[in-house]
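Worked example 3 (structure in, sequence out).
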């Protein structure tokens, strides 16, 4: 297998520059940021354990696949904490949330 040409590398770099990957916690997260991060991790775990597509998971949550993608990538600035908790309860009806 030959090394990619400069043109191929440039094309790949251009595509990657438009990709919005998963956001990480800041270096010193607040308790609320940690809590919201943990909620998102529940979605990631559920999707993986049940081998669901974005559309299938969206159907369970009652949202479109774009919103599911945002949650899975921790791009949740447009979601209230209450809404995220409601979505988690749709996936895990027996969930008890502990604050503290």
């Amino acid at each position: 297998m030959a090394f990619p040409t400069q043109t191929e590398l440039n094309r790949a770099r251009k595509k990657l520059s438009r990709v919005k990957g998963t956001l990480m916690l800041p270096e010193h997260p607040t308790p609320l940021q940690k809590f919201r991060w943990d909620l998102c991790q529940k979605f990631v775990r559920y999707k993986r354990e049940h081998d669901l597509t974005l559309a299938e998971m969206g159907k369970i949550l009652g949202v479109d696949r774009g919103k599911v993608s945002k949650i899975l990538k921790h791009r949740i600035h447009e979601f209230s904490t209450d809404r995220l908790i409601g979505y988690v309860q749709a996936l895990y009806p027996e969930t008890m949330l502990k604050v503290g």
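Notes: The mean pLDDT is 89. Residues 31-100 form a domain with the 434 Repressor (Amino-terminal Domain) fold (CATH 1.10.260).
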